[in-house]
Amino acid sequence: MNPDFGYLRTGVEKIIEGIEIDNVIPFINRVDNSSAISVELVYCIALENYFKIEVPIRAKFIRVILSELSRISSHILFLTKLANALGMNMPLHYCLREREEILHLIEVATGSRLTPNFVRIGGIKSDLSKQFFDKLKEILKGFRKKVHELRVFFLENELVVNKLNNLGVLVKEDAIKLAISGPNLRALGVSQDIRKNDNYEIYDEFNFKVPIGDRGDSLDRCMVRIEEIEQSISIISQALYKVPEGKIRTYGEVNTQLMENIYSHVECPHGELGMNISVSEGRIAKLSIKGPSYNNLFAFSKAVIGEKLEDIELILASFDICVCEVDK
Amino acid sequence: MKGILRSLITVTRNTFKRPVTVLYPHDRIMVPYNSRGSIQLMVDPDTRKILCDGCGQCEKSCPLKLISIEVDINNKKLKSFYIDISRCMFCGFCEEACTKKALKMSFNYELTEKDFSALKYDIKKLTKHARPKLRKFWKT
Amino acid sequence: MLDRPKHLRKIKFLNRLKNWVKLTSINVYCFSSGCCGDEILATYGPVYDLERLGVNFVSSPERADVLMIAGTITKEMKPILEDLYNNTEDKKVVIAVGSCAINGGPFYKSDYILNGVKEIFNVDLYVPGCPPRPEAIIYSILRYKERFK
Ligand code: SF4
Ligand code: SF4
Known about the structure:
In chain A, about 50% of the residues lie in helices and about 10% in strands. By secondary structure, chain A is mainly alpha-helical.
């Protein structure tokens, strides 16, 4: 099975050439529609590391909180798609209800529901108020219970478990050959997470597990994501009580000569998101994005071989492919 | 069997909770104060005049170059101010660039139009929903 | 007052009946991609619940009264969209959601992008926003309903 590309090609990488480096952020966050903040984050981290700009600690904490929130919302969107493919109407509505709460939190913090435009080079755009943290505490208190409800629907219901078990198994050699990453790789039993292996923000201060599966079928992929939601909640609730007071942004020097191949990567909800930037005279000379969904799409076309025709939609939903990011 | 029963119990428990649906045209969710809706020009509270003096900062900062300003050369007053809202991506850079706080993104999100030409906002449309700029109680 | 001929009265009554039916059940065919597609999914959810206004999301264009087109429109999609438009029934209304579908949006400089669906066919309602809030999408449905009142 070969995928057919080009139906959603926007050419973002081309149109941002020649734009000032501060103005790029609203263009590139449209690449990944389910968690836009991780694309902004990888861009800013790349330039900060290269030009040695020190980010204030309060800004780092807020970045972590927001990116974990968007990870939760993306994984809940995955469960929505899975419920739709399974034909379960009730859990679909429950998922959309929980997602709305998280999106409201993101909107209170950043000003927009899906396209925040919030992270800046050297910090963040504006400070978060005390009301936001109070609201976050209030919502997190009830959220664990809600995730447990979703777990009952997807992982303890025998009808769903029997359907998903041994469906669309991905072989380990294939996965490593295709360089897939993220929850789809962790479902195979490989413990690979950039938050742990290459702690880019202050992720080493938090105490969290990397959930792994063992066989690499659809059930494992679903289970890994639900457990990641729980780990994200625990990261946020640790971060909430540690946020220090202080500045939120430093204005650093950006050199004016040609700088080539500045690379950085983060763990976005679909996998490893990398970005390669060349800057000249304060403007973008070349920028290329390496998205995880592209590799996951090929992994899907490997895993689908030998399955029944009516299960294809279900297997596609279980790989969580963000179509915008495949074509860019 | 046990799992199906448990999910049935969860459904029945949720049936008796308070409904979350917002009956939109009759009641609304409160939009956060920094939410980015349509763009508006602010008005001075005393003289009811537009605060913008046409310095052109927002024109320069817009990544898509959608704002066009014309200034009268003789008395240095704003002649025309157009924003092409049909391509706007509501990024908020124009609001950040304005040093006089004359441009602000409002709460208004009901922007549906029938004509395409109505999407090019002029001064009249930009000040339609504008409230006077908040003033300090104690004058310094 | 002049009395109307009987058959004309009958036609008027039938028209009113048809309008009433159209007001209470609107069939929407949704062609969505990108971030605007996520917001349309949110209007389907329990918090905004479009179905309480009589909106039905249908899965084939033959049964639809309203074509809702949202998200990025590329040149590759043009034949598909033309096909869709020709297949919908006669009195169709097209709603363009999001600045990509209206006029190319943030990507209008790109070679792959079509400058809005207005280049292919006539659009009746424009919903600006990037992405528009779910309430804004519901508001466009309310504007559509005003036509039949
Ligand atoms: S919100 Fe952004 S795109 Fe829209 S006019 Fe302002 S700067 Fe331009
Ligand atoms: S209009 Fe904006 S939000 Fe909608 S698809 Fe285009 S870029 Fe995304």
